[in-house]
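can u do me a favor
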């Protein structure tokens, strides 16, 4: 075959291949067979700046009356402290500031300052368009009595999915997690969800303050499933299931209420998070258009990718290295990926990795044909 003809065929084939198989996972991510179009993944073991990680430390105050306790709340970014590992190649060990590595969410101990507000930490995802999905975080709770540590999804006070840990409840024989759907019913009950059918207490087979464990909830239009270390704890249904978009939140607080958080703690109480991940559908019109544009054939090989489940608590160099799509080549095309993690392969707001790989493939094949023709 003449060189020009052969090269033209190869070039056309390469461009066809590159344009029809841009990337893995281009149609989304599946959890137990349910497809989600978007993701947020945060590897707090290696992130130095929370503001570059897709999260916003919160700043607000709540007076004691509104906080419904003897004390109020003082959320401040100073109570979110990043303590990454010393090396980006490690997955366990002390952070650069000593102690457990990860994002530290802190409640300051001792008597509250004037005004009766207890300093606390809270951080929310920048993405507020999360409409149904699977959300999970690796967390080590404080062992100091007097705080409420929380991993939750939030729209408003009547649409909220909570996994809450009351450190005063931890002892040698009791390790509970409080599972809550805040709803119109809980508001009517005076913001007391334990008087509704969407409040459950589950004893865990481990101490939440003794190490990192994965806490997770999967939110569907008709139910919410709660998990710990991959084991199903409970399923809630009914009118309390949220139906509007919102965001993920990690927080730890205290208001002195003896029936809930108690406290304040006698010294600084630290809740440490080594990762947070969300796989969800977006309510944003542009993101929906982006999905339609990039997902050419949902049945094509590798068009969807299954989210791996953990098989053991994320505590050492083996188990703490959980799977991140954002740390794999060519698995997050057209996703909105913050640049704050040094291990992220795709950085920047939008992926151009797949088109570049397609172009490189084309040039490589073209060069190979040219070399073979000249050699012969």
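np, heres the sequence
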């Amino acid at each position: 075959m003449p060189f020009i003809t052969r090269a033209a065929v190869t070039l056309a084939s390469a461009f066809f291949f590159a344009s029809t198989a841009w990337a893995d996972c281009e149609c989304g991510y599946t959890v137990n067979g349910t497809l989600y179009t978007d993701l947020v993944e945060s590897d707090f073991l290696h992130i130095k700046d929370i503001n570059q990680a897709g999260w916003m430390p919160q700043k607000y105050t709540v007076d004691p009356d509104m906080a419904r306790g003897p004390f109020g709340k003082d959320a401040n970014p100073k109570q979110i402290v990043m303590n990454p590992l010393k090396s980006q190649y490690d997955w366990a060990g002390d952070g650069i500031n000593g102690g457990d590595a990860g994002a530290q969410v802190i409640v300051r101990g001792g008597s509250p300052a004037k005004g009766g507000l207890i300093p606390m930490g809270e951080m929310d995802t920048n993405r507020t368009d999360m409409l149904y999905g699977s959300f999970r975080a690796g967390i080590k709770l404080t062992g100091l009595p007097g705080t409420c540590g929380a991993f939750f999804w939030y729209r408003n006070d009547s649409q909220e999915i909570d996994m809450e840990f009351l450190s005063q409840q931890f002892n040698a024989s009791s390790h509970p997690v409080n599972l809550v759907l805040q709803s119109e019913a809980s508001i009517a009950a005076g913001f007391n969800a334990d008087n509704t059918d969407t409040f459950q207490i589950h004893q865990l087979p481990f101490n939440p303050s003794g190490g990192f464990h994965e806490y997770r909830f999967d939110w569907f239009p008709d139910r919410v499933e709660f998990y710990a270390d991959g084991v199903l704890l409970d399923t809630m249904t009914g009118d309390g299931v949220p139906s509007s978009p919102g965001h993920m939140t990690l927080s730890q607080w205290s208001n002195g209420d003896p029936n809930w958080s108690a406290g304040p703690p006698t010294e600084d109480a630290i809740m440490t998070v080594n990762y947070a991940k969300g796989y969800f559908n977006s309510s944003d019109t542009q993101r929906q258009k982006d999905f339609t544009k990039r997902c050419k054939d949902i049945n094509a090989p590798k068009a969807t990718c299954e989210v791996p489940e953990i098989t053991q608590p994320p505590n050492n160099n083996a188990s703490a290295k959980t799977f991140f799509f954002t740390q794999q080549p060519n698995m997050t095309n057209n996703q909105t990926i913050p640049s704050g993690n040094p291990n992220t392969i795709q950085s920047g707001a939008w992926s151009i990795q797949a088109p570049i790989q397609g172009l490189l493939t084309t040039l490589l094949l073209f060069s190979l044909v040219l070399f073979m023709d000249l050699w012969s």
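The mean pLDDT is 88. hope that helps!!
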